[in-house]
Amino acid sequence: MGLNLQNRYMMDQVTFFDASIATVVGPIISVCVMQMVRSMSPEMTVKRMLTLHYKAMRESILMPYGTGFRIHLRSIFDRIGVLNTKQIQSEQLKVEINNALIESSAAIDLTRLQELVKKLSPESATTKSIFKLQNLLEQWWTEKKHRQPTDHLKQQLIRQFDQVLEDVQAVGDEDIRHHIEISVNNICSSMCHIQQAERQPSATLIGA
User: Fold this and answer.
1) How many distinct structural domains can be found in the chain?
2) What pTM did the predictor assign?
């Protein structure tokens, strides 16, 4: 006795196409979602904000003092305030955030140095030394934006800080000379985290 069973197969092309697309697109969407989650993680946010901080500090080197600079300075301090609220696990990033807090105090001295050099003769040794120092500082911040600066660049900066302090002794105006010494001292210790013990023993730093 037959059971009268029949096997019939139908292929719904639309359903088949949707399933195929889902098989391909599904993993892609998962990867995209993971990347979005990672991009919103505290560590990634901190890295992006540090990059903006390094850029802002580099811009301070040649920025004239005025309303624009005060707005610029406020943005630096606001960014530091936000960075200090981030809860992260990376010890390296914690160090960089702490360094950024110290570095921000040098922004005013960078602009002050730019204003002071305008009062000197363009041909003076001090002017040329300060210009060279500013170029090295720009390299420093450019390297920090992409990677940690090399020891070679750090040593170049140390020597140039000392050179400026040596050349500025020839400046006749005591007030200008004193303010240059203070600014160079502050920039050296704040921006590059160079302690006085790392400096040449012959260098005399004035100011705080």
Assistant:
1) 1
2) 0.71
